[in-house]
Amino acid sequence: MASQAGGGNKGTAKDLEETENLLKDFIYQRSQRNGDGNTTVTREQLGGGAPCDPIHKKLGKCLQKVGDELDGNVKYKSLINDPSLKPTKETFIRVATAVFSDGKFNWGRVVTLFCFAYHLVIKALENRVPDIIKTIIRWTMDYFQEHVIQWIRAQGGWEAVWSYFGTPTWQVVGVLLAGILTGFLVVRQSKAQ
């Protein structure tokens, strides 16, 4: 279901809805696969149901594969496992801003934000503040609406992610690492201040 270029706010609203559904499913699927009883999020906590559209299910699987590669990165693991990392809006905005600090957008960076939102949700569960989960989703969606959704539309919508991640794995990892390292440095710098 690629969105057409143009289409005004109606297209943007549809793209935002699709993004939010993919984000919620991404977080849910990762927590089901990677979580233990204390760090498994429910669809209710995320504020949404399971995707019905077969295209969304395929997209979700593609995004999960990219997330798996990202989770295997040592520097990213160090960032997300840092005990001082807190699920705050300030942390999310710093990392999101850093990921796109050079003004360049690509699917690897977009998925990096999905992964980071997932890890903030897990931190919220670990810190026993599950009420903030929907707020983390909102921060992510606000950032997408203000900074990323027009780029997604310009690519032809979410279906374009398939062609991007059809590139060799080492190229995908390189793109992801650039986003990770930027986020890692920002979090480290904010702790030093």
Relevant terms:
disordered N terminus; 9 helices; mainly alpha; globular; 72% helix; Apoptosis Regulator Bcl-x
Describe the structure.
With 193 residues, the chain is mainly alpha-helical. It has a single domain (23-141, 168-192), classed as Blc2-like (Apoptosis Regulator Bcl-x, Orthogonal Bundle). Helix content is 72%, strand content 0%. Helix 1 crosses helix 3, helix 3 (54-71) packs across helix 6 and helix 4 (74-80) runs parallel beside helix 9 (169-192). 38% of the residues are buried. The model is unreliable at 1-8 (pLDDT under 50).
Can you summarize the main beta sheet? Answer: none
- Name of the top-level CATH class: Mainly Alpha
Q: Based on DSSP secondary structure assignment, what is the total number of beta strands? A: 0
Helix content: over 70%
- Shape summary: globular
What is the H level of CATH, i.e. the homologous superfamily? Blc2-like
- The CATH topology name reads Apoptosis Regulator Bcl-x
The helix count comes to 9
User: For the terminal residues, how far apart are their CA atoms?
Assistant: 45 Å
Overall average residue pLDDT: 80
Q: Over the alpha carbons, how many angstroms does the gyration radius reach?
A: 16 Å
Strand content: under 5%
Q: What's the architecture in CATH terms?
A: Orthogonal Bundle
Kindly give the count of domains: 1
Order of helices and strands: HHHHHHHHH
